[in-house]
Amino acid sequence: MHCCRLSLSACLIVGVQSQPDPNVCTPHGPKGEGPPLPLLPEQFMLKVEANILGWNHTIEVVEYYDSINNRGAVHNIYAGHISQTVVNYETKEIIRVRPGAGCHVQNLTANGFNIFGFQLQNGTAHIGSVADILKFGASYNETYIGTTYIRGIPADHWQSCLYNEQTNGTMLLDYYFTVPEHINAEGDSQIPLRLALNGTASNRKFIHGHVVPVNGTHSYSHVYEFFDVQFHPEFPDRSFEPQLGVVCPGRKSLKPLPKIPDQFSMSVEVVLPGMKQVFYMSEVYNYKSKTVVAYYSFTMNGSIVPTSYRSMDDFNTGLTYRINQNTGFCNVTPISLFSSDAESPDHVHVQMKSIASFIHYDTRDWQYQGITELRGMQAESWIVATNEWKPNWLTHNASSQVNSTWELFYTTDAWNTQGGLNKSTNMPIMSKVHWTMKTDKGKLVNGSFDMNHFHFDTANVDPSHFDLSPCFDSGNSKEFAFDILEMGIYNMVIANNTIGFYYGVAHSLATAAGISPTRIANVFAAEDIDKVTTVFFDLLGVPAVKGDAVDMIKQPSLTDAAVALELLINSVNAEEPFHVKFNYNGTEKSLTAKPDTLRNSFKQSQPEDSGSQQFSTGAFVGFGIAMLIIGAVLGVGILVFLHKRNKLNIPYNVQS
Ligand SMILES: *[C@@H]1O[C@H](CO)[C@@H](O)[C@H](O)[C@H]1NC(C)=O
Ligand SMILES: *[C@@H]1O[C@H](CO)[C@@H](O)[C@H](O)[C@H]1NC(C)=O
Ligand SMILES: *[C@@H]1O[C@H](CO)[C@@H](O)[C@H](O)[C@H]1NC(C)=O
Ligand SMILES: *[C@@H]1O[C@H](CO)[C@@H](O)[C@H](O)[C@H]1NC(C)=O
Ligand SMILES: *[C@@H]1O[C@H](CO)[C@@H](O)[C@H](O)[C@H]1NC(C)=O
Ligand SMILES: *[C@@H]1O[C@H](CO)[C@@H](O)[C@H](O)[C@H]1NC(C)=O
Ligand SMILES: *[C@@H]1O[C@H](CO)[C@@H](O)[C@H](O)[C@H]1NC(C)=O
Ligand SMILES: *[C@@H]1O[C@H](CO)[C@@H](O)[C@H](O)[C@H]1NC(C)=O
Ligand SMILES: *[C@@H]1O[C@H](CO)[C@@H](O)[C@H](O)[C@H]1NC(C)=O
Ligand SMILES: *[C@@H]1O[C@H](CO)[C@@H](O)[C@H](O)[C@H]1NC(C)=O
Ligand SMILES: *[C@@H]1O[C@H](CO)[C@@H](O)[C@H](O)[C@H]1NC(C)=O
Ligand SMILES: *[C@@H]1O[C@H](CO)[C@@H](O)[C@H](O)[C@H]1NC(C)=O
């Protein structure tokens, strides 16, 4: 009895020294009478209602069996709680998730008990046969008893007698299957309806984790009702995976996190379930340029129309440029030490959060959670638990305890975007954060937010996102133009590659002149009738506000920067002419600036934007997860900023 309390399934299979109990039954050889035995499938899904005499409660079990793919899982429903057991023969792990008790991982061994059995096939672990799991089949020397009715369903009745020497247990099994002519709701016939088993066994006690035989015997009686039996199952999503959002300490992770590119743009829907609020924004990252841009809008107190913002953090200069897109007004402030995309090594200077700063995310035990269908896409996800995440908007007390779990979902390799010649794969599509915190008063509070990511693009990160010209009036900026030496190349490498080219121009000029790339704005190229390509751009000044960034390039004044550019292009004695280096279909190309052509008085005849096809390559460099985390945190940082303005609370659900 005690053993049965430990595991229902154990009772099914284990039933102690010497001889079968003749009062139960006498084992015998095959009798060879009656109709052929029902054939059992290699895959099934069924529910069992288990009633064990003297237990005073019913247990329901959902079983998922897949011998073809070598996996099995069960859900035990007991006293209003569902606990889950997943047996992974590939990683040799048994994973149990119990409500309120978290997840436990155990090694799968040949002699340890597990409902799905264990076989060695060609030296590898394999799930047991269906006959052995159900304890039904020719090897059990079934005796045909005849037909009867079970729950109004015509049924064939088989009986077998099993004796287990180890437990000195004898049991009589009565199996009922639908007759071949009866088709169940799922379209299957000869499916199990009921198993009734009675028997006796030596008494055992569970002492210090071991089952120990004690004097005496007991008898038992179990009835298992099978329903919802599917012999041709379509296993629901994640049938063979622990539920999402549960961290299983010690579980083997089958896959590393996908690499995140060093530049990308995406839109984010931030969902705050606690507040029933949704917030939209889009974000652009450029790790090489050390810039982060966010687009968002909100309605200010007392206003009836929402205000749209484009906010850019420039870590080259340590400044935040917040441009009110309704009015064009630009507000320049130093990047806050508490900005969610920033970190500070010394509590004075800011720097862009990088993989190095997120190294704990990178080296942490991110666990692969398998495949899930999300928004109609196949997604893979990873989960990690941490107590290091303590955003200052949640708590200002460094000794507060905050436990959080992070889940990241990416589309599988088989999915890609069609939004550019350079297709993106492994698109991030969702992140989920859940935290619990103990307040100073000892109260437990929890909260969560989900983010849906979409419109992910690693290829077409348009330089216009980084355009700061609205923040500089004509007194603090200068228009320039220069010509390209190579003739007739416009249509070849620029027209269908403007994003790559314009980005290249800004970076080449900035690097050569020793200024932040964000000071080169409004880059534009056009070809005249003589096949000469001219490049136009604005050189921006230096804002009055000073930032405090790590490795800040000291920004020369507008005049000094203009002189530097002139030296670069107009100095006839230059040993090396200035080159514009840019990306073209994945390779670096270089064009020469025609010496002595830099000018700031010119007639600009900009044609209308032809909306030409654009492409460039997103260089996939392994910055790991850092960028995405920035995305997640950034979203929330801005939200908190908004809620502070509106004097709203952070989404907490008080637990106790
Ligand atoms: C085995 O079971 C039988 C029948 O219940 C009982 O008579 C016998 O004493 C048991 N043997 C041992 C070693 O427990
Ligand atoms: C079935 O009968 C065979 C032959 O008598 C015997 O070897 C085998 O152990 C029996 N199986 C069971 C489960 O009793
Ligand atoms: C089941 O209920 C009966 C009657 O109330 C009681 O005697 C017995 O101990 C209960 N069994 C268990 C396992 O709780
Ligand atoms: C499982 O097996 C591995 C090696 O195969 C061992 O390192 C680990 O400690 C085992 N875990 C448990 C819980 O026994
Ligand atoms: C075991 O190996 C043999 C020969 O390599 C192969 O024919 C057989 O299918 C394998 N069995 C299983 C279960 O993989
Ligand atoms: C099994 O045991 C129960 C309860 O002791 C009894 O009612 C039932 O008739 C038994 N069934 C068989 C097949 O012996
Ligand atoms: C168990 O049985 C043995 C021999 O029958 C006896 O010596 C022993 O005292 C018994 N133990 C208990 C706990 O009753
Ligand atoms: C928002 O407006 C309301 C009513 O005009 C006012 O009572 C409240 O203090 C304002 N809140 C903020 C944060 O300005
Ligand atoms: C955080 O997790 C630890 C370890 O699991 C636990 O002891 C602690 O109570 C948790 N704290 C909170 C606030 O949930
Ligand atoms: C910070 O939290 C700790 C433990 O939660 C508490 O003992 C301490 O008083 C708190 N400090 C402040 C300044 O609130
Ligand atoms: C860009 O256009 C030129 C001229 O039409 C063509 O030769 C070249 O292959 C195009 N490049 C790409 C990447 O489409
Ligand atoms: C772009 O690059 C790819 C792979 O390097 C190559 O297959 C393709 O032909 C190139 N396209 C053009 C237009 O050069």
TrEMBL record:
Residues that span the membrane, as ranges: 620-642
UniProt source species: Patiria miniata (Bat star)
Domain DUF7959: 497-598
Higher taxonomy: Eukaryota, Metazoa, Echinodermata, Eleutherozoa, Asterozoa
InterPro entries, per the entry: DUF7959, LolA-like_dom_2nd
Protein name: Uncharacterized protein
Protein's UniProt keywords contain Transmembrane: yes
Domain LolA-like: 245-472
Highest taxon in the source lineage: Eukaryota
Record's signal peptide: 1-18
Keyword terms, alphabetized: Membrane, Signal, Transmembrane, Transmembrane helix
